[in-house]
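input
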Amino acid sequence: MAHSVSQLVLRQPNIGKLIRALRQELSMSKEKFAAEFTVTLLTINPWENRCVDTLSLNNTAN
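output
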């Protein structure tokens, strides 16, 4: 059964903490992390604060 990105995000209440922990574990700044995933720095902050915009997640999947 396929799930949409928004459904997966809703099922992951700590996704922002996981993203921040991953970035910190990799010793990456938000700028480097954003560049690695070809998104802007303004995208990383909402991800880490769990204000995830489904559109920005869909754009990274391409």
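quick obs: The helical segments are 5-10, 15-25, 30-36, 41-48, 54-60.
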